[in-house]
Specification:
With 286 residues, the protein is α/β, with parallel strands linked by helices. Helices cover 52% and strands 10% of the residues.
């Protein structure tokens, strides 16, 4: 009887250990099984970096696939015009409606110093996009893009580029996140003149460069100073769930290279574990 109970306890502990096991430190993952005849690949990108050179494993994966699928179809000639329409708040909302008069003065000074433009000219933009305008400064180098590097290879190989979601779907995320919360993040950036943002971005880049995708998602979940952790469902989880069937459809049609932000990969609601739950085998390429 004691042996049976001990065996049962070991089995339960093993099950929980397997569930809580961290993912390997890798940005490139093979997708196979579940009816796929050829291997597809999942790659975690970061949208801004100093050096977007693709390593030999990524190059080989691109050579072995016939389609590039990013978060959105960045080859769509109408993408930029559609994005411009989506950066503005709905219902004629202005930053003035979201902050106090004193805070608006602070933001105005900050925007003028950082961008050389009056806030009044930008006040109807979603605060998230105003914050995003400062991100290139956090790098401290000319900005490069992994998406652009991946697209260059696809173009050289005369392969199509598609998206897992439309531009409109991606932009709708920033209507779902309350403008008030976005404005609070922008105000925090202004109050310490980007000090917190600079430190956080540095840590994020260190995690990315070491392929620590678990660390990236943990950092986002634990960041109580920004609205990111409060709206993980809208920014990541819901989108991840919507992508799984689309990833399967593409991969079953032809071997496909999927490139999405690395923060989408890890976690219980991340793309890797969701694909595994859907029956696919997803292994790290080390």
């Amino acid at each position: 009887m004691k042996t049976t109970i001990f065996t049962f306890i070991i089995a339960i502990c093993s099950a929980f250990t397997c569930q809580a096991q961290e993912l390997e430190k890798s940005l490139l993952w093979e997708i196979s099984g579940n009816g796929l005849t050829k291997t597809s690949y999942l790659y975690g990108t970061i949208h801004m970096t100093c050096d977007a050179t693709l390593d030999k494993n990524v190059q080989k994966a691109l050579d072995d696939t016939k389609l590039l699928v990013l978060e959105i179809d960045m080859d769509d000639p109408s993408m930029q015009a559609t994005m411009m329409k989506g950066v503005y708040m709905k219902d004629n909302t202005s930053i003035k409606d979201l902050v106090s008069a004193e805070e608006y003065v602070l933001l105005s000074k900050f925007i003028q110093e950082q961008m050389g433009m009056p806030l009044d000219a930008l006040a109807t933009m979603k605060p998230f996009f105003l914050t995003a305008m400062f991100y290139p400064k956090l790098l401290g180098c000319p900005v490069e893009s992994y998406e652009a590097a991946l697209m260059k290879v696809a173009h050289d190989q005369e392969e199509e580029v598609l998206g897992l979601e439309t531009v409109e779907e991606q932009l709708s995320v920033f209507d779902a996140i309350p403008y008030k919360d976005q404005a609070a993040d922008l105000l925090s950036s202004a109050q310490d003149n980007l000090a917190y943002d600079t430190n956080s971005f540095k840590k994020l880049m260190e995690l990315y460069n070491s392929a620590n995708i678990e660390g990236m998602i943990t950092m986002m979940e634990d960041d109580k100073n920004r609205s990111t952790s409060k709206h993980m469902d809208k920014m990541l989880n819901n989108r991840n769930k919507n992508w799984i069937s689309k990833i399967g459809d593409h991969a079953k049609t032809q071997p496909t290279f999927f490139g999405v932000g690395a923060a989408h990969l890890a976690g219980e609601e991340g793309v890797i574990k969701l694909l595994r739950k859907a029956g696919y085998t997803v292994n790290a390429v080390m």
